[in-house]
Automatic annotation (TrEMBL):
All copies of domain HAMP, residue ranges: 202-254
Protein name per Swiss-Prot or TrEMBL: histidine kinase
Organism: Streptomyces pseudovenezuelae
Organism phylogeny: Bacteria, Bacillati, Actinomycetota, Actinomycetes, Kitasatosporales
Record field: catalytic activity: ATP + protein L-histidine = ADP + protein N-phospho-L-histidine
Enzyme type, top EC level: transferase
Length: 494
């Protein structure tokens, strides 16, 4: 559950939405910052220019009234008249001449007036301004020197300096309102970006999901699956490529299946055609075997060789016929309820292995189940024969029942030999057809189909077979078969 949730959070849709959200956030924040900066600069510059123009006008109008040199009372009237231009308390004016100092408000210390402004006004005839924040308030400080015009048009400095402090409360309110407006505008912008991101993600994810479903369908064997190609973008090109690949894969698989079917049919036909001449050859070799003792040694050896090879060829043909039935789906189970221990004893006895193979089998009727007796005989015979040919004595066959009746009991058949075991690189391939662990092994040592037929017979019963190496040495083959019972029969105690 947690893994699925983590996978969803890391999916394409969340990443697209987050990506769009980040882009929208950056765009909105950048646009808002630029807009705020430009608007703030415009508001403050307009207020500043208007204040400076108005101050110059007032100074030019009232400068002639100062007289030269001005006294304290003249400076006081000058500062008061200039400050009276705006409403009470809006303008605060300071006029200086040498050591004389006159303020529009008595005992005003003018904390906003910095040394930099004083020095700039003293050394230049230009108008100087500065924005100063003091005690949480922003004010505009303007300073200028009062000049007189000469007959030749030149300007001369009178020595009178005027400083103006104007609170920018209204301008700050405009700026604060602008900030609030930008913040409010960002929320709808982000919501709109998320909505657009969802629509964009849907447009991207629909073809991706269709491609995912089509890929799963191909993996499940439906090779005729195709995607609808809409548009001419990269996703449409990907869908077109997928369709071409699926068509090529369908064609290749159809050809391979046809070749496989023809190969199976050929093997079945050849095996069927060989059975009749092999039957005649077997009959002849049986007769020759009876007379081999009366033949000269060379002829007797040749007869026995022919007889042995005929038997092996007949076994190979039978194995090929059996494999062909498995491949064609024509193999059938003929179930019968039998005593599995007794069936194993008959298998060993019929092949003359009773004295060669050790058995650990339960008492009669202790392990009963519905199986196909012929196929169980093939399974046991192939595994024991394999242990005798490729392993070493002792070869031991064990049978036991495991599991609870309510959950379904299993018959466990274990065949173990005393040989060197199976190499680790061979273990994964022991049930493959025609596989031989030693390529130098002679043709007469087996067809390589016995274990494959064993695995198919076990699979038909709904069981499993596996190969391993015993810790004490030797190879171990373990077969597990479900113990199905007749509904009318009663279970015998173990």
């Amino acid at each position: 559950m947690k893994t699925r949730r983590t996978r969803r959070l890391r999916g394409l849709r969340p990443r697209l939405v987050v990506g769009f959200g980040l882009v929208a956030t950056v765009a909105a924040a950048t646009t808002g910052a630029l807009t705020f900066r430009e608007a703030r600069t415009g508001v403050l510059k307009q207020s500043q220019d208007a204040t400076i123009r108005q101050l110059r006008t007032q100074v030019n109008q009232r400068a002639p009234e100062l007289g030269f040199p001005p006294d304290q009372s003249a400076l006081q009237r000058f500062a008061a008249d200039v400050a009276a231009t705006e409403g009470p308390g809006d303008w605060r004016v300071l006029a200086t001449y040498g050591t004389l100092r006159a303020a529009s408000v008595a005992d005003d210390p003018f904390p906003e007036l910095t040394a930099d402004v004083r020095e700039a006004v003293a050394t230049s005839q230009a108008t100087v301004f500065q924005r100063v924040r003091e005690s949480g308030r922003t004010s505009l400080v303007v300073g200028m020197s009062v000049t007189f015009g000469l007959p030749d048009g030149a300007q001369t400095v009178s020595g009178v300096r005027v400083f103006l402090v104007v609170p920018q409360t209204e301008e700050q309110a405009y700026v604060d309102a602008l900030v609030t407006a930008v913040e409010r505008a960002m929320v709808p912008a982000l919501l709109l970006a998320v909505v657009l991101a969802l629509f964009a993600a849907r447009g991207v994810l629909l073809p991706v999901r269709a491609l995912r479903d089509a890929t799963r369908s191909i993996a499940e064997g439906r090779l005729d699956t195709r995607l609808a190609v809409n548009g001419s973008d990269e996703l449409a090109d990907l869908s077109h490529t997928f369709n071409e690949t699926a068509a090529a894969l369908e064609t290749s698989v159809a050809e391979l299946r046809g070749m496989e079917a023809r190969a199976r049919r050929f093997a079945a036909d050849v095996s069927h055609e060989l059975r009749t001449p092999l039957a005649a050859m077997s009959a002849v070799t049986d007769v020759l075997d009876e007379d081999a003792a009366r033949l000269d040694p060379d002829t007797a050896t040749a007869v026995r060789l022919i007889s042995g090879e005929t038997v092996k060829l007949a076994r190979l043909v039978d194995d090929l016929m059996e494999i062909s039935r498995f491949d064609a789906g024509a193999a059938e189970l003929h179930l019968d309820e039998i005593d599995l221990a007794e069936s194993i004893r008959r298998t060993l006895a019929s092949r003359g292995w009773s004295d060669t193979v050790e058995t650990w089998l339960p008492p009669p009727d202790a392990v009963r189940g519905r199986v196909d007796p012929r196929r169980l005989d093939v399974v046991v015979a192939n595994l024991v024969g394999n242990a005798l040919r490729h392993g070493a004595r002792p070869v031991r066959v064990c049978l036991e029942a495991s599991g609870e009746p309510s959950a379904g009991r299993l018959a466990v058949i274990e065949i173990r030999d005393g040989g060197p075991g199976i190499p680790d690189d061979v273990l994964p391939h022991v049930f493959e057809r025609f596989y031989k662990s030693d390529t130098a092994r002679t043709r007469s040592e087996g067809s390589g189909l016995g274990l494959s037929i064993t695995a198919e017979n076990v699979r038909m019963h709904g069981g499993t077979v596996r190969a391993a190496n015993h810790p004490a040495g030797g190879a171990v083959f373990t077969v597990e078969l479900p113990l199905r019972r007749d509904e009318s029969s009663e279970e015998n105690p173990s």
